[in-house]
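User: Once you have settled down, look closely at the record that follows, taking as long as you need, and be ready to discuss the fold:
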Amino acid sequence: MDIPASPSVVLCRAVCKSFRGKGHAAATQALDGVALTVPTGAMVALVGPDGAGKTTLIRLIMGLMPPDSGAITVLGHNIVQSPHAAESSVSYMPQKFGLYEDLTVQENLDLYADLHNVSTRERRERYPILFSMTNLGRFSDRLAGRLSGGMKQKLGLACALVQSPRLLVLDEPTVGVDPVSRRELWSILLDLVKQQSLTVLVSTPYLEEAELCGHTVVMFQGRILAEGAPQAVADYARQRTFHLATRPGVQPRRVAAAWLTNSAVVDAVPEGGQVRVVFKTPAGATATPPSVPDEPGFRGAGPDVTVFKEVQPHFADGFMVLLRQAMAPPRDLPASPGGGAPLPVSARGAAPPPPQTAAMPSAEPVVEVRDLVRRFGNFVAVDQVNFQISRGEIFGLLGPNGAGKSTTFRMLCGLLPLTSGTLRVAGHDLRHARASARQTVGYVAQKFSLYSHLSVRDNLEFFASAYGLRGRRRRQRLAWAVAEFGFSTLLASATGRIPDGFKRRLAMACALLHEPRILFLDEPTSGVDPLARREFWKRITAMADEGVTVVVTTHFMEEAEYCDRMVIMMNGRILAQGTPAAIRQLGATAAVTEPTMEDAFIHVVRRDPRRSSSQAGT
């Protein structure tokens, strides 16, 4: 689908950009002949895996670096010749927006107004609008450092809008932001486009956010794979997308992990208690849904999958088809959406993936939390929290920014002492034996916490020593990490210079070197592209099947479907606790009869009467 004809705010033609490699390393081609048009009053989403070129393209459009070749025009100005020509009419919110945390909300706004030469009269007109739009008015005297992640992003957006731009450019504005705040931020953006005809160019790793935009651009390895309305991208998965219903007692995450190994499958994820599968080739208009026959090795009387049902594709389904097509030999995937080829033989039943009916988590409690309290002065961050986690269980800690889940998480890891209550991890009482308990756990922090100036090899060696690995076991575990996570060509690379996806892999590898019984993952896939998230959860599912207990915090509600059980926290207390099916039902209303996990999360959080008084706090 072509972009509707209208005056263009951004026009890129044959844009190329490469970055020199260090030492003898080859140059990296970040952009390769990119052509892009952003019309007036449109919201355009850039999506793609890590290294696709999204941030590079944004920086070139902003005039922050020159292209190697090609033309870039912004609001009629040649940005290649005059990088600053359009800056008075363009606002940019990068991934790490420069808020001053020791200044108040009001002082941050004033600072950006000064930088953009906004007059006193314009401030009197603009500030009330920005405060009303972001709900920041009552927090104008609050230090920015004391705002929650979602409110910080709203303040960043207000600062970016203080000069009334004609073009707003946002680079992953909602990474690390909870679903409630994310939905509120997008509501603001959509209103700006609708009511003020503001033009917005936004990159996002959240594919459901791209579906809210009028136009989407799918990038891969510096090139544009496809562009058009979200539905046009979704159509690449037309007649290929199915729901697989599973037998009672069969965990959808295990079935999804198995189907991801099938060569006929593009994507498989748990969704609403079922498994959403996208096949490589379409079924055709008259084809019947595929079935899975009984096979040797299936446990019980029948197969794990009982029913296939074709469903309408989402943007994410088409996105995955496009990426798999770009990564595979051309003969393996059709180049156009909605073809009429028959469903692949392996999907019709000749070779279903192996069943995944591994034993459910054992009843043995590995983590026991009773009446857990943590105070910081007079502030109660965690208030009378209770739960247990069994061996081999994936347990989720969910909640909006500032809910207390990170504080709970740090106490579980032995990184923060509790104020009162009981906390036992792997048989150790953390009031008295935090050091001993840490020997049995692995920890992956939300923010990258390895040594950026050291090589990948040096980081692995350092953590092997820190965990006391010696001799043959040390060599075996290091070799395992290199092979398992694909580091063989990156061992000499400085960790700070490798792609973000590989940084996450390295953090995971270091946490697993000593083969911990419990793995703590704090927002492990924040800012990670969808392909890397699929790989991550496939690995976590396999580890849980081997008896490793996994405790995870996440703001991706579709990832909560991988959990065996979870809690939703708010203001330091647990609002809800249970299986994914039980949590989803909490979101059921007369208007929403089949709630998603995000529907349930937002419903539970918004009905808490204390939410409005705490949403700005950390």
Summary: Residues 1-6, 286-302, 330-359, 613-618 have pLDDT under 50 and may be disordered.
